What we know:
Layout: H1 2-11, E1 13-17, H2 18-50, H3 54-72, H4 78-91, E2 100-108, E3 115-121, H5 149-164, H6 192-213
Antiparallel strand pairs: 1-3, 2-3
Helix pairs in contact: 1-2, 2-3, 2-4
Amino acid sequence: MRSMVTSLFDVERITTTAPKAKEARRVAERLITRAKKGYRAHQEGASLKSSGKEAEGQRMEATALAHWRQAGRFVRGTDVLRKLFDELAPLYMERNGGYTRIIRLSGTRVGDNAKLVLLELVDTEKTRKPMMRGGAVQTAEPEKPAKGRGKAKAKAKDGDAEAAGEKPKKARKAKPTAPKEKKETKKAKPSSGAGKTARSKAGTTKTRSKKSGS
């Protein structure tokens, strides 16, 4: 548990099982509260010494040192202990509890198949950034140009040419296409009855011409 809490203060984010995370969270929040008390006592002692109250200032410095030693009995490493008092304690001075959070993960631990969780500190520079899943950033595919964008691009090019002092190229006019000739409709064939009447009329005219000639 000491190693887990020390790693939490050091790297600000660890992966473990749910029961261990709950116990480490309880211990870590108590240590952060102790560090806040020690930081506040140290600040008050410094202000009292600057105002000329040496005795009261030394008393507050002794209180801050007692909190440092109590936290040092659990936290391993002087650098991590200094980070707890100098960085994390001022960060959570306006916060009343809830310095850590537990996030459930979808994976399980190899061996006993125990469910894994993520235990991390709240509102630090590292935990504010979103986690990268898979270790790589997914690049977005290039968008396909939609219909009607060709005209917009041509207008943008003309605007750039005018700004540069060049004359924009005129668009070529399309040649007018000749209208297609309508197909002539086929004349309707005369019916059989109409043909007979025409033949009879032609025969009568021939007989009349013969009589007149005789």
